[in-house]
Amino acid sequence: xxxxxxxxxxxxxxxxGYAQGYDVGGLVKEAGSGLPIPxxxxxxxxxxxxxxxxxxxxxxxKGVSSGATLVFTYLGxxxxxxxxxxxxxxxxxxxxxxxxxxxxxxxxxxGSQKKREVTGAVSVVDSKTLEALKPVKIEQALxxxxxxxxxxxxxxxxxxxxxxxxxxxxxxxxxxxxxxxDGYIGELGLLNPNDVESITVLKDAxxxxxxxxxxxxxxxxxxxxxxxxxxxxxxxxxxxxxxETSRKLSTLDATEYALLLNESYAxxxxxxxxxxxxxxxxxxxxxxxxxxxxxxxxSHDLSFTGGSENVTYAVSGxxxxxxxxxxxxxxxxxRNTARISLGADISDRLKLKTNVIYTYFNRxxxxxxxxxxxxxxxxxxxxxxxxxxxxxxxxxxxxxGLGNEMINPLAQIANSYNDYNFKKLNGNFGLDYKLFKDxxxxxxxxxxxxxxxxxxxxxxLDYGGKVFDVTRSSVTQSTVNNNDYSFDIYGxxxxxxxxxxxxxxxxxNTIFKEYGNGLFATGYDVPNNSWEFADISLTKxxxxxxIIPVSSYVFDERKLSYFGxxxxxxxxxxxxxxxxxxxxxxxxxxxxxxxxxxxxTAGWVISDEGFYGESKLVNFMKLRASYGTLGNxxxxxxxYISQLSGEATYVFDGALVxxxxxxxxxxxxxxxxxxxxxxxxxxxxxxxxxxxxxADYFIDTRADLLIVNIPTSGINGTGAPGASSPTVNGGTxxxxxxxxxxxxxxxxxxNFSVSVGYNVTLLxxxxxSTNGVPFIPGGSFGISQLPPARMEVxxxxxxxxxxxxDGVFQNQAEVEAHPSQIALGAEAAPGDIRFVDxxxxxxxxxxxxxxxxxxIPAATMGFNVQFNYKxxxxxxxxxxxxxxxxxxxxxxxxxxxxxxxxxxDRWTGEGTSNSVPRVTTxxxxxxxxxxxxxxxxxxxxxxxxxxxYTLNSNIAEKIGISKFRLYTGVNNLYTFTxxxxxxxxxxxxxxxxGGIDDGFYPIPRTYMIGLNINF
Length: 1015
Known about the structure:
Residues 114-218 form the TonB-dependent receptor plug domain. Residues 388-973 form the TonB-dependent receptor-like beta-barrel domain. Helices cover 7% and strands 47% of the residues. With 1015 residues, the chain is mainly β. The protein has a domain at 20-95: Sandwich (Immunoglobulin-like). It has a 22-stranded antiparallel barrel. Strands 10-15-16-13-14 form a 5-stranded mixed beta sheet. A hairpin with a 2-residue loop joins strand 13 (178-181) and strand 14. The chain is globular.
């Protein structure tokens, strides 16, 4: 009987021990490098309790039964099981990389692949990189992190557009890549960066699945989703900071300016403007006047994620408020976003997924570019002038000597009134249905609907006879509605035949429609000449005779596509893929609506071969190649027909009557632009998978370029209001180059880990054909000069076309011994620029113009490092561009403007200078476009530095949070360059005429402090 009591007691104690719950937590890391792994699924085996590791690889689960088994799973690594025997918050779990499931799954369009099976040139930027970079716009995260991708700024103003180029400039039209957000067409610049899980860039024929829209490359965005069986997690990310200009140009102070101007007038035979130059001092530093310091930027982001066995969810919202370093609120940008993402397993066969994003932004702008630029006025304004006159009003700049375009930049800021509001709702709804065992049908509806409203006010102004004088107030308002939707349905068949053969086949159909309208109107005589009353409803004035104050448009574009793809591998080491897409578009005429876009890719995993053996040096080696044809249709609608969209004046019954006329000249033969892409690449993993190398050689040949407004004779009426030259297919451009990237990551000790990455892209651009046209001009320089850039056979697209120089004439004998330069506008004199007789005919004239520069960099590269030491983390991201030239076009040509201080090294007599010409008010040819104005704009930029501290997880959990990280950082810390302008990496976005600096609004340097909190 006693033994029975003991048995009952033993069973009771055993059951009690088994029933008690333990709190378990710790760190999950890679076995090789020791780096933490975020997003690892941690699940109680055969139970419902689970979680996922945070960004630092840490996890915590409460109430785990004794003897229960935790299962750790993460794609690309072997599953690991751990048996719970006690309370612990310091588990150290190491996951082994699975050679059969190498790395993460890569999104490739209408599906995904394991990275080891990818046969195209594909690059991925993960959320960890985004976390370190803290980009205001998601496009900034691609600069320096992905080989073959170059991101240029059109302006440093808040909210300004960024231009992305994948493997160079291939067309003289729109070079932007296609952006796909969770399966539908979207806009990168509208996303909250904290909503993005990963960015995948398709650079070669792998993008052919997108057919007519993939020629410029494809960027695939995957947004963050909740995870199954994960408890609800609240994440709050916030940073605040201040901005300042990253650069100022060194201009002459008031005394230097006065002395130089006296010299210029004396050399021109005119009386001195400053008979007494003493006492002027430094004068007004106009750049200090327009550039504000400690300009605020604030960003907040809150998200809720989680999931059960069958449902996942993610809800987030963000707020960004950024003022400009010029004009502060006058050039401010505010963006709010809200997102909801939902996934549900409705049944074993049917799955639902949806993602909806709402974006609102407000942007105000100042005049930029050319003679109207605030920045250009500040650079060229004489320091002898004061910002305000004796009455406290803005100083009026004199007309004589400064031209009729230069005005007080402070007055220009104060008198700029505009407002732009943009609202957009976009997203998709999708269903996956397993029709039978190996076949899944996917159906998705994607949509974008946006509305924008703008208002600008021109108040009555008197700048003293300048072109910016306004004698009658007006307000211009517009509203634009743009919408599109796409319907995709495709089936995916996945089958394994025997032990060696794997097949994935996809076939589908896409319907796309884009439509919208716009309305524009101007009202005159604004009450009280005030912004507060600037609304068309309050204006009563009639427009001047012949002016039509209203306009509108309506458009409707459609596309119908069919696509198919077959992916096959044998034993996972011989990889083949073939794609074909058929697109039909309303942008082209009846005979050219349809285009076919095939591609083929192949790969060989050499390291899986039996002869390869067990290499201790090389863990993985894959050779791959691709070739295919992709399309581009980035042109306006209805270019193949003639429309009554122009203006004309007719005579009816002896009276002049305003009416409509033919607009753009039609081209019924308009067809697709085609890109033939070839790529061969090598993927390597070395030294226990700690080193990753990717190398690619590529050739991208773009034929039948869609050239808008090709130059034609004016006899066709192309100069009439609303009319334009036709859009034609003409020209071929080839980009060829080499990409190389190497990454190293390793845990060097228990407390210290490192990750280092370097990538470089070498690029050559060449125009092969212009379809019979000698050249296509573009861009502008100075006043009344011919376009300075061209597209011409044998040369890079957009190369600079002008005169070569050969120093400065030192004496009259040199002038007389040199061919005459009078055809350029004036006879040369000692101290003037000496131009090269390029064709050797003994005369310097327009026939001596030649190639004097290339705005396309010969090489771009990025170098990035990350260190983790205990609770501290440090990261630095840099980018370099080598071989790109830029035209210095921000210097005014008028006599009395200020100058950069390099003119202090001017020629003042024989032997004084052979690089900077004399200053004079006399007529010279020194200001004609030549390589004197073209500078090497190569640069190295420290894009981001960040230092963070993460609170110990044990302490954080005691105060009810799972993660607390505090960080500080600097964006755009410093740019190393010899270029004299504000930004050597800026561009106006034009393929022909890009790289011409009209006075770019500089990119701000931003100091920030922020925190990340997870609950």
